Amino acid sequence: MSLLRQLWLVVLLSTLLAFLGGFAVNLASARQYLEQQLMAQSADSAASLALSMSQQSKDLATTELLVSALFDSGHFRMIRFEDVHGRVRVERRNDADSARVPAWFSRLMPLHVEAGTGMVSDGWNQAGKVVLVAHERFAYESLWLGARNFLLVMALTGMLSAMAVFALIRWVRRPLSQLMVQADAIGKRNFITIAEPNVTELRRVVRSMNLMVDRVKAMFAEQAARIEDLRGAANRDALTGLPNRDHFLGRLRQTLADEGAAARGALLLIRLHDLLGINRSLGRAEADGYIRRVGAQLQAGLPAGQDWLLARLNGADFAVLAQDADVAQAEASALGLLQALQDIALEGHTEARNIAHIGVAFYQRGSNEGSLLSAADQALARAEAQGGNQYALGEIETVQGVGLQEWREILDRALAYRSFEMASFPVLDLHKQLIHHEVLLRLQPKEGELLTAGQFMPMAGRFGYLGQLDLVAIELACERLKRQSEPLAVNISSASISDEAFLASLPPLLARYREVASLLWFEVNEYGLGGDYQRLVTFSTIVREFGSKVGIEHFGRQFGRIPALYDLRLDYLKIDGSFIRDIDQQDGNQMLLKAIIGVADGAGLLVLAEAVHTEAEWQTLCRLGTQGMTGPLATRQYGLG
């Protein structure tokens, strides 16, 4: 039984006992008083009647007249006159009880009335005596009325007291409930603060709890800052703050192999002209400032809202990984970047007519990393041969282009006829046992042809179809779970969790598959959230009602957001594959991943590694504390199992 219920019960019993005690004492006192009054009435009336009879004639008629006159007042149960020999000469009785008083009350509270006597004299001789008993009917009526009024007053008082106690308990329960919610959240490693209540004792407790939460959050912020420092040391160029060569190559490898990434794109290789000459003429400090300015201009020149990666590969070389860029976009970006760099020449750092060259190479999913870099380098050489501030395009390896209208028709037809399949990729634990399958949509535009998610999802995003496609993916996953019980992870686009129509359709869909919904793992790309984690909280609240899990994939690109992990109620993280590449040889990334795992453990999150290729990488990840993996190695190991 809860403390508040015990308090309520104590107050109720105390009020009831107080009422019963007061009622009993009140009735006992009233009964005693009334008995004394009845006894006095009997004695006084007997003396008065005896005196009257002594002064009158002693004949029977006069005696009866005097007795009847007093008896007819109705206040007496019995009046009797006896002669000196004890014979009853006159007697009047009224044994009727009051109709206003319940019989049970009379039995419960009996009144004992003693008879009053008076001696009747005839001169100096005794003529007889009067025996008189007052009727207790009026006393019972008075006692009953008093008891009833006392009951009503006590009941009203009890109701008012109960209302006051109820209000008090509600007032106390609110901060107690908030305190319980906070304690439960902290137990689940969700660190929240609550407003301090007006109850002095609880205020001290809440203040201490909030102080603890603030200190924990401050510790998380410090850890996030430390992780950001580690990331900078391991994956950022010290001069420009841009990603370095190792990080860029890791992202490139992951993009070429990831079925969920855009199926095409471009690699832009940018080389500054005569950096060595600038260094000699301006000095190292000025040359470093020039390089920093170039990095800032290139970053500002990239299109907003695109998951494009700019990195500095070495002294004079920069690179851009432009996912989902077609020929026109890549060419426009190359031209725009060259124009952005012209501002630097106006500052006197170099000549405007020859500041940089750009080589552009195009890729499809599955392209060879080395061949792509070589193609970009060859295009760069052609650009340098063309003169100052030039760009050149490499060979365009692409499938027959599909127009926007045709894409819309393909997607509309697929949604109408559910022309989709699911591709699955295993995620294994430390013992290489299955954690779940990560499933991705594949679209079948016609018989014998399948398009990967990276091929049609970008176009679906342009037409606003991502929410519908994600609902299809969830439905297909649930249908598969009805046939087999191995957990499935479904990728949800960041656009969908901001789509009111998607969020409204999700609960009914999961309710239809409630028996398997707990086997679903939902994951959202960290980049697409853009730091707006409240959308993820809303989505997480919906799916958790059905027992589903929620996580973030490609985690690691926004480490400054790590403190938010404790407010998101997540279940797992998938570390971005760019940090996993050759991690067995990257001491900096090992330190970085170790720090991330420490924070994730504090938040109670499962940490999984993406794009694991080699056994050496996996052994290093296990040593660092990673709890699972996905990627080519996981696929091979699961196949062996």
From TrEMBL:
Ranges for domain EAL: 404-641
GO cellular component: membrane
One family name in Pfam for this protein: LapD_MoxY_N
Keyword annotations of the record: Membrane, Transmembrane, Transmembrane helix
Sample GO molecular function, one term: cyclic-guanylate-specific phosphodiesterase activity
Any GO BP annotation: signal transduction
Domain GGDEF, residue spans: 263-396
Sequence intervals crossing the membrane: 150-172
Limits of the HAMP domain: 170-221
Entries under InterPro entries matching the protein: Cyclic-di-GMP_PDE-like (IPR050706), EAL_dom (IPR001633), EAL_sf (IPR035919), GGDEF_dom (IPR000160), HAMP_dom (IPR003660), LapD_MoxY_N (IPR032244), LapD_MoxY_peri_C (IPR042461), Nucleotide_cyclase (IPR029787)
Name of the featured protein: EAL domain-containing protein
